[in-house]
Amino acid sequence: MAAVANPVACFIAMFLPIRSLFFMGFLTMFGTGFGAYIMAMAALSPCPLLVHSASGTVVIVLAWILFVLSLSYVKVTIGVILRDEGHSALVWCGAVVQLGSMLGAVSMFPLVSVYGLFRSGDACNTKCPM
């Protein structure tokens, strides 16, 4: 579902770009809040909150959908705004997006590979408290 949210957000942003700085700031904070929730649940793995309940599944799926939807909309709207500024602005926008991807990968590598903060559970052997 989250994979569908990205093209839906991009489609909406291309035809309905809301260029309000307040609205974009709100959507950024909204998406960041869902991203923080997703990271917290991943850090609590293999026993996150509501691990064996249907509501836990619904909450995490909705969090992913709203996270991708809101931040994809903001990213495309920023691109639409910078498109009006010229080619150079779009080039810098692309460079900053790639820099952000690199910083995310560099910061996550030690958390996953060195410190083992995120780990998967074995469905047959992991016992989570209810």
TrEMBL record:
InterPro entries linked to this entry: Riboflavin_transptr
Transmembrane spans: 21-44, 56-82, 89-112
Keywords attached to this entry: Cell membrane, Membrane, Transmembrane, Transmembrane helix, Transport
GO MF entries: riboflavin transmembrane transporter activity
Localization: Cell membrane
Membrane topology designation: Multi-pass membrane protein
Main location: membrane
One Pfam family, short name: SLC52_ribofla_tr
GO CC list: plasma membrane
Catalytic activity: riboflavin(in) = riboflavin(out)
Protein family (similarity comment): Belongs to the riboflavin transporter family.
Chain's role: Plasma membrane transporter mediating the uptake by cells of the water soluble vitamin B2/riboflavin that plays a key role in biochemical oxidation-reduction reactions of the carbohydrate, lipid, and amino acid metabolism.
Protein name: Riboflavin transporter
Source species: Dissostichus mawsoni (Antarctic cod)
